[in-house]
Amino acid sequence: MFEILNVQVKLLPFLLGVGIAFFGWILYWFSINITGAAVGGAAGVCVGAFASLIMGRQEFFLPFVLILGFIGLVFGIFLIRKVHRIVFFLMGVVLGILLELGIEKGMAEYGFFLIDKMWVQIVVKLGSGIISGLLLVRFSRYIVSVLTAFCGTMILLSSWDFKGGVLPGIPVFIMAVFIQVFLLRKKRGSSFQKETT
User: Fold this and answer.
1) Angle between helix 61-109 and helix 11-55 axes, rounded to 10 deg
2) 4 in any annotated domain
3) Using the 8-state DSSP alphabet, how is residue 160 labeled?
């Protein structure tokens, strides 16, 4: 615990809040890749060890474990990135369908029916779901940045005994979003320059 301007601040929640608020997307993406690498690498090592035991060739144990562990590590990272995109897409599909249902219900309450035929309703719901899913995948970085900035700000606010309510959190949240978006755009700009040179 330390003190800033006569306000007691708990060190661990403060550091955790700062990290999540200002570097949320980086931490999120790093943890996804580490998880994929760990799971894929462990699976590859297990397959390599099992294969060498089944063959009864102990001299193949280390090469199999190393080679298949590395292949599993790379495949794990690739697979978890695809799973990340699929999860965001499915969340977007559900949100799009719910949004369309809400609009349709609201219009029906006023006696205005947008669509009468069932097959047209299904096509519209699927269309709105797919568009929403694609948008969520496209802007997943920014969505995660805003969500982590919000969560980090809440953790940061809980780390001190200041009685100002959530008011001090508003500028912290805005600054955290701004910094995360700046880092994202800078990263995307540098990767674009590498591709064009």
Assistant:
1) 130
2) no
3) B
- As beta bridge partners, residue 2 has 9
Range of the domain at 113: 9-185
Closest to 76 measured CA to CA, from 47, 36, 125, 110 = 36
- CA geometry: angle at 63 spanning 60 and 67, to 5°? 135
What tens-digit pLDDT sequence spans the chain (197 residues)?
555 555 677 888 888 999 999 999 999 999 999 999 999 999 999 999 898 888 887 888 888 899 999 999 999 999 999 999 999 999 999 999 998 888 777 766 666 665 666 777 788 888 989 999 999 999 999 999 999 999 999 888 888 766 666 677 888 899 999 999 998 888 765 553 443 33
Give one DSSP letter per residue of 43-74, joined into a string: HHHHHHHHHHHHHT-GGGHHHHHHHHHHHHHH
Neighbour tally for 109: CB within 10 Å: 8
Number of domains in the chain: 1
197 falls within a domain: no
The 8-class DSSP code of residue 163 comes to: -
Determine contact, residues 178/24, Cβ cutoff 8 Å.
Answer: no
Q: Is 68 exposed, middle or buried (0-12, 13-18, 19+ CB in 10 A)?
A: buried
Rg of the chain taking only CA atoms, in angstroms: 24
Neighbours of 178 (CB within 10 A): 13
Please say whether the beta carbons of 181 and 27 come within 8 A.
no
